[in-house]
Each structure stands twice: as C-alpha cells, then as structure tokens.
Backbone:
C-alpha cells in the first residue's frame, strides 16, 4: 500500500522540504530499484533460514524504513528510509506467494496465492483514504504520519508470523520430515491427507522411500547454475513461462493506467477535482472487486483459461482507450465527441477489470507453482526482480 500513501504524501513533502520535481521522482522510483535488490537476495535467504523467518525479516526491514521516513528531518534521511523500505518490499513480494504455495493444499492454492494481489489493491485504497484524513494535520506532521504509519502493520506481521507454521516443503528440504508432518497435520483436514501430502513432498524433493536418512540439501546452493547455466529442456520451458508472465504483467501498462488514471480522466474531459477523485477511487474499487472474482474462479476454471481471457480483455480495452483519446485530441476543443469521452472512461474501467481477473493475480499463483521444489524460492525471486525492472 506504500505507493497509495506516497502518491498523496509527495504533494506535502514538496511543500515542506522544498524539493524539486526530480527529487520527488527519485523518491518515488527508488523503491523499485531497492525492491529489486531485496527480491534477488530473498530467494537465497529463504532457502537458508526458512520461509517464516524471511517473512519476519521482510517486515522488520520495512518497519525500519517506515520509522526512518516518519522521523525524517530532511530529504536525504527520507530517501534512505525509502530505500530501506524498498528492500523490505522486495523480500515481501517474493516470499508471500512462495509461502502460500508451500503451505496450501492443492484445492485452494490458486486463490491463496492470489491473495497478495487483493491485499495490495486494498492497501492502495486504504492509502488514498488515509491521505484524505491526514492531510488535515499541520504540514510538519501530516506526511510524516502518512509514511510512518506503515510501521504498525509491519510490526504486527514481524511478531505475528512467529505463530505461523514453517513451510513443510522447506522442512523436508532440510531433512526434517518429522517436523514437516507435524505442520501438515495442523493444516490438513485428516491425518491421511497429511501423510499423502508428505509423501508427495518427499518425491518432489527427490527422496526415494526406503532410503536411509535423506541428505538435506538445505542452503539452496547451485540453484542459479541449474536454472541459467545448465538448464534441462523442462527447466528451460518453466523459466520461459514463469519469467515471461512476470515480464508481461507490467508490460500491459497497468502501472501507467493506475498511476495516471486522474490524467486520463482529465484528458477525457472530467473537470473538477472531486469528480476526478471519485473516478480514481472507482478504479481502485473495480480492481479489488474483480480480483475477488478471480479468486473465486481460479481453482475452478483453471489458470490458463482465466489468463487468456484476461489478455483478450486487455487488448480490446487498450485499443478502445487509444481510439477514444485520439478522437478527443483531434476533435476541436469545443465540439469534443461525447461518444469518445464515454469510450475512453469505459475503457479505463474495462482495462482494470480485465487485468484484475487474470494477468494481475494469476501471475503470482502460476509463477510460484510451476517451479520444481528445489528451484522454487530462487526462481520466484528472479521473477519478482524482472517484474520490478
């Protein structure tokens, strides 16, 4: 939700710290650069210390960044805080879907791994609403409160995660199958289901039943070599698919539409600030509603049909948006074509809906599921890095 908060806070930072536009752009963009660093190291860390501690670490890093931003006396401190928070974001984006895939049963796995996407869009909405109320505080405190409040949920997460079970798949990789069975008994409906899932995990990890104690391959060494230097044909296909969905998720232009929807509405002739705000909140609501639809469908309909129909919707709505905005621009200022205005506005909403029903949430579910167990954490971390780039 950090991006929702920052979009509003920047107006006040500019006024209070007397920053110029370039400084603000660096402040906004540095988050993705640092998230890239975070996500690339997170895969190896989570193979080494476990999925659960990695979530806790992500929360602690973000907590430190939020506190730095909230107390920042000047631009330099603010930038450092934003950088630290970015590393935490990179860790969180990589570990959340991996942990969800590894702990969920196959029936609900798709909807669980799509949950981060719904939480992100819900968080952005809360960010908009929080800004609206905090804008009334004195200038010195307003934006600092906006950015510092991020410390609260991350503190709760850092502590709360210790009550959550470790990923049974990671435990098996460490050669700790008994502990994995204890966890599976907690998260499965019956003891039989737990035993079946443990056997599945063992075979996925390459342990043959009846062997002596398996050799743990704990720290995730050599995984990058296996993926990029000497991939088998199967691993190569997996890489193309899993990294490809991440690459194209952002190439659809979702960031531009979400960040600049106010400008698109303005270009389409929506004039007053209140109307623009209402329309923008409408975009946020549409996004959240359609991700919920996706969560209901993803395990019934399957990943591929939803993803492909989502792509078709994106292509159609982008074409309509381009057409509508071109006609508005070409028609004389006073005789703007009303049908083109309606088309452009409708296209923004259809685009967000189409993205949210497939390309948005399924990217995370699919790219976490498709890897073999040994490559999963570090494969997911490269995916998130590509997503951020």
Residues:
């Amino acid at each position: 939700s950090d991006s929702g908060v920052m979009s509003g806070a920047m107006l006040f930072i500019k006024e209070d710290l007397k920053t110029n536009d370039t400084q603000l752009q660096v402040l906004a963009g540095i988050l993705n650069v640092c998230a890239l660093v975070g996500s690339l190291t997170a895969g190896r860390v989570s193979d080494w210390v476990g999925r659960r501690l990695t979530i806790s670490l992500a929360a602690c890093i973000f907590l430190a960044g939020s506190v730095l931003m909230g107390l920042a006396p000047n631009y330099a401190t603010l930038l450092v805080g934003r950088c630290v928070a970015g590393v935490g974001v990179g860790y969180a984006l990589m570990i959340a879907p991996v942990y969800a895939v590894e702990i969920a049963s196959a029936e609900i796995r798709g909807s669980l791994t799509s949950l981060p996407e719904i939480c992100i869009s819900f968080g952005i909405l809360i960010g908009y609403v929080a800004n609206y109320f905090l804008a009334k505080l004195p200038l010195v405190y307003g934006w600092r409160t906006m950015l510092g409040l991020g410390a609260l949920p991350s503190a709760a997460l850092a502590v709360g995660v210790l009550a959550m079970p470790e990923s049974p798949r990671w435990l098996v990789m460490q050669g700790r199958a008994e502990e994995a069975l204890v966890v599976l008994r907690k998260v499965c409906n019956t003891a039989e289901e737990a035993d079946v899932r443990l056997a599945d995990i063992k075979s996925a990890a390459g342990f043959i039943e009846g062997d002596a104690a398996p050799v743990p391959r704990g720290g995730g060494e050599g995984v990058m070599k296996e993926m990029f230097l000497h991939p088998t044909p199967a691993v190569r296909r997996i890489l193309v698919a899993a990294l490809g969905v991440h690459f194209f998720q952002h190439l659809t232009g979702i960031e531009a539409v979400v960040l600049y929807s106010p400008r698109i509405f303005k270009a389409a002739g929506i004039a007053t600030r209140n109307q623009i705000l209402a329309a923008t909140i409408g975009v946020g609501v549409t996004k959240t509603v359609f991700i919920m639809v996706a969560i209901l469908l993803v395990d019934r309909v399957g990943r591929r049909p939803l993803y492909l129909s989502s792509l078709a919707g994106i292509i159609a709505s982008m074409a309509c948006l381009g057409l509508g905005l071109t006609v508005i621009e070409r028609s004389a200022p006073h005789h703007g074509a009303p049908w083109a205005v309606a088309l452009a506005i409708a296209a923004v909403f259809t685009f967000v809906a189409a993205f949210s029903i497939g390309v948005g949430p399924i990217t995370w579910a699919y790219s976490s599921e498709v890897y073999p167990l040994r490559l999963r954490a570090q494969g997911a971390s490269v995916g998130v890095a590509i997503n951020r780039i």
Residues 21-49 form the longest helix (29 residues). Residues 210-216 have pLDDT under 50 and may be disordered. The two ends are 19 Å apart (CA to CA). Residues 2-166+228-388 form a domain with the Growth Hormone; Chain: A; fold (CATH 1.20.1250.20).
